[in-house]
């Protein structure tokens, strides 16, 4: 069954074609450069950019897969969580296409989409496992009991991990989006240069908090001259990155051990982070835990993961009606 997957939840406009929830025929992701000048996503501009970019992305996907619109057998779209204006563009377009093509429509939870990036990347991945979903909008630890059966065991109380990267990069004046820039800068930095705080909260808890770290970066920078900061940039970036990664890794491994699970899925935009991937894999190996981490294109927002999750729900008879609406605060 050929599914068109659409994601317009934040600042990437994506359309993908996936066969039977497993084979990616095309996965077009148009990043919206417009936000670069503002140092963050401007919701109003994001919605307008989706309006411009979405149908060309669908067309590009069809061309890449050498298929026609009428070949599509189902339409899956992110209906939440995300920015309301952005979600509405994707949901409206998906509904119109499903309606005209007379094909089933399915609304997909964006966070569940990030989980399905794992199934897409590794067909051998089977629940149960623990998933760490880390992106610009979410930081969650999830016990994936089965496809469609999830227990959220912890989430962030304040900033998401990606948001922390983006805000730290802004304070360092190095640009947007912060994650990839800090990842790159850190390459030549000493992660032990600044002892930034690790918010473990209660050690047994799977909850996260990154606002204290953000504050610590602010205080540290306020006490340094611009020259010192410029000279030490890679060290400061690497120290910040290490503080985020240590907490993410420790809490994920703790959760897997507490649940007696031997597999971890690392997904979402921050899962592109090289230190996080490396440290998680190394730390997990000590406990005999395997780590699945999709390639970067499936970790950041993309339509393929939405098509994969949509296929699963359609195959369970969970099509949406044409009254489907956007749910900006939807939870997993
Ligand atoms: O999943 P995603 O594309 O969008 C959301 O659902 O939020 O994640 C985007 C986030 C941004 O905050 C970005 O800075 C972060 O992922 N990110 C990274 C890296 N690549 C992207 N964070 C750390 N290291 C990276 N290499
Ligand atoms: Zn996302």
Shape: globular
CATH classification class of the largest domain: Alpha Beta
Query: How much helicity do the residues have?
Result: 40-55%
Ligands: 5'-O-[(R)-(carboxyoxy)(hydroxy)phosphoryl]adenosine, zinc ion
CATH architecture of the largest domain: 2-Layer Sandwich
Describe this structure in words.
With 332 residues, the chain is of the alpha/beta class. It folds into 2 domains: 2-114 and 298-315, 2-Layer Sandwich (Nucleotidyltransferase, domain 5), CATH 3.30.420; 127-293, ATPase, nucleotide binding domain (Nucleotidyltransferase, domain 5, 2-Layer Sandwich). 45% of the residues lie in helices and 19% in strands. The protein has 10 helices and 10 strands. A 5-stranded mixed β-sheet has the order 3-2-1-4-5, sandwiched between helices. Strands 8-7-6-9-10 form a 5-stranded mixed β-sheet, with helices on both faces. It starts with a strand and ends in a 17-residue tail after the last helix. The model has no long low-confidence stretch (mean pLDDT 97). It binds 5'-O-[(R)-(carboxyoxy)(hydroxy)phosphoryl]adenosine and zinc ion. Zinc ion (ZN) binds next to helix 3.
List keywords for this structure.
332 residues, alpha/beta, Nucleotidyltransferase, domain 5, 2 domains, 5-stranded mixed beta sheet, 10 helices, 10 strands, binds 5'-O-[(R)-(carboxyoxy)(hydroxy)phosphoryl]adenosine, binds zinc ion
């Amino acid at each position: 069954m050929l599914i068109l997957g659409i994601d317009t939840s934040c600042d990437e406009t994506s359309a993908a074609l996936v066969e039977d929830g497993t084979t990616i025929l095309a996965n077009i992701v148009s990043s919206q450069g417009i936000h670069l000048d503002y140092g963050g996503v401007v919701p109003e501009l994001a919605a307008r950019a989706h309006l411009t970019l979405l149908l060309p992305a669908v067309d590009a996907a069809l061309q890449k897969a050498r298929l026609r619109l009428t070949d599509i057998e189902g339409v899956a779209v992110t209906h939440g969580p995300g920015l309301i204006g952005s979600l509405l563009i994707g949901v409206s377009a998906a509904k119109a296409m499903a309606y005209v093509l007379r094909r089933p429509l399915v609304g997909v939870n964006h966070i569940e989409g990030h989980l399905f990036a794992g199934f897409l990347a590794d067909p051998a991945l089977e629940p149960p496992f623990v998933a760490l979903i880390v992106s610009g909008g979410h930081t969650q630890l999830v016990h994936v009991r089965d496809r469609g059966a999830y227990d959220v065991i912890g989430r962030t109380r304040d900033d998401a991990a990606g948001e922390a990267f983006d805000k730290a990069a802004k304070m360092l004046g190095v640009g947007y989006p912060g994650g990839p820039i800090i990842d790159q800068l850190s390459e030549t930095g000493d992660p032990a240069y600044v002892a930034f705080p690790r918010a473990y909260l209660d050690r047994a808890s799977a909850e996260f908090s990154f606002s204290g770290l953000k504050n610590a970066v602010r205080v540290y920078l306020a006490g340094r001259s611009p020259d010192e900061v410029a000279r030490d940039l890679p060290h400061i970036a690497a120290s910040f990155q290490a503080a985020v990664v240590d907490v993410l890794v420790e809490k994920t491994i703790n959760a897997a051990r507490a649940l007696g699970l031997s597999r971890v899925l690392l997904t979402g935009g921050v899962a592109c982070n090289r230190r996080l991937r490396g440290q998680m894999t190394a730390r997990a190996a000590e406990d005999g835990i395997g780590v699945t981490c999709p390639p970067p294109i499936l970790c950041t927002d993309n339509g393929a993961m939405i098509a994969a999750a949509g296929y699963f729900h359609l195959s369970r008879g969970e099509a949406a009606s044409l009254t489907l609406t956007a749910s900006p605060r939807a939870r997993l």
